Amino acid sequence: MIPTLEWTADGVRFLDQTKLPLEETYVLATSYRQVADVITTMVVRGAPAIGVSAAMGVALGVKESKATSISDLTTEFGAICNTLAATRPTAVNLFWAIAHMRDLFSALASKPGITREGIADALIKEAQVMYDEDIAACKTMGANGAELLPETGGVLTHCNAGALATCGYGTALGVIRAAVERGRAIHVYADETRPFLQGARLTAWELMHDGIPTTVLCDNMAASLMRQGKIKAVVVGADRIAANGDVANKIGTYNVAILAKEHGIPFYVAAPWSTIDTATPTGDGIPIEQRPEREVTHHAGKQLTPHGVGIENPAFDVTPAKYVTAIITERGVLRAPYAESLAELEAIPTAR
Ligand code: MRU
């Protein structure tokens, strides 16, 4: 399996996604601040992966703490959580994971006789359970979504919603993997995904690793390929899904959704339940991260644009629910009206 991130006795080990596909190198984060840095600089990226990374960062922060009382540890814990929460604003999985760790910390800290070591051990264990659950959710999503993909033909994806964006297997790429495992002859078309090139660098690398036929296209080529009948379905991931089914995902997803609708091609979104934010009524309320201008002005250290020109670099966009054919989750496949189907599945109690 692709080793995206891993808890080790020395800290959290990350496959450095900024170096792929040419170098497979690892970064070992030995403090929670380093974990925060690894998330901000996108050494690790993708909504589910940054959620579990943050949970591991919280556990690491408590493990390395020198607090001598539970009261001091509680103050320090708040700062650890706030640092990790300030890394990236859009993917709700990050805040979901930190809230989960906060709840566990509060329950543990109020236990009589609890020690810092006892809390650290429980938080480390919990982060590892979240890691395992993320992989399990991806596999179930794959099983739920595989049948929606064509028996044969091209499937377009945008950004990287694969093993590299999760703890393993992937969301959108998990659905593709599951379809291929079930014998479907799928050819993946991966949008390059300017400016960070998650499609060209990461999706292409991970699908080639698994021997799944893949073609990379520039972001402005999708319409032409759709018109030629080369694309039978689109499947993408998500960073946050609002209560009405509006989907925030990598910048350019909205373009693809409109093109898919125009060409009568189904547009699927695959995401774990931790990506659904029923507290945000519509996509208008989803905070969109603005990334540094340099990601647009430069490539591989070389300047592409004239000095001083205006630059836009929103990292995500919002696709209105009306363009989404179905949302594939580990709890089932949702269809419009999403306000109702999301609320219905939200009400079903889970194992934990
Ligand atoms: O900026 P990134 O690379 O973290 O953005 C990632 C995406 O937009 C993915 O499509 C999304 O997180 C889904 S990952 C399973």
From TrEMBL:
One Gene Ontology BP term is: L-methionine salvage from methylthioadenosine
Q: Mind listing the UniProt keywords for this protein, alphabetically?
A: Amino-acid biosynthesis, Isomerase, Methionine biosynthesis
**Main EC class the enzyme belongs to:** isomerase
Please verify whether the record's keywords include Isomerase.
yes
Q: Which residues form the active site?
A: 239 (proton donor)
**Pfam entry (one):** IF-2B
Which residues are listed under the site Transition state stabilizer? 159
Residues binding substrate are 45-47, 88, 198, 249-250
UniProt pathway? Amino-acid biosynthesis; L-methionine biosynthesis via salvage pathway; L-methionine from S-methyl-5-thio-alpha-D-ribose 1-phosphate: step 1/6
InterPro entries membership: IF-2B-related, IF-M1Pi, IF_2B-like_C, Initiation_fac_2B_a/b/d, M1Pi_N, NagB/RpiA_transferase-like
What GO MF terms are annotated?
S-methyl-5-thioribose-1-phosphate isomerase activity
| Reactions that this protein is recorded to catalyse | 5-(methylsulfanyl)-alpha-D-ribose 1-phosphate = 5-(methylsulfanyl)-D-ribulose 1-phosphate
E.C. code: 5.3.1.23
Q: What's this protein's family per the entry? A: Belongs to the EIF-2B alpha/beta/delta subunits family. MtnA subfamily.
Q: Known NCBIfam families for this protein?
A: eIF-2B_rel, PRK05720.1, salvage_mtnA
What function does this protein fulfil? Catalyzes the interconversion of methylthioribose-1-phosphate (MTR-1-P) into methylthioribulose-1-phosphate (MTRu-1-P).
Task: Please identify the protein, giving its name as recorded.
Answer: Methylthioribose-1-phosphate isomerase
Q: Which organism is it from?
A: Alloacidobacterium dinghuense
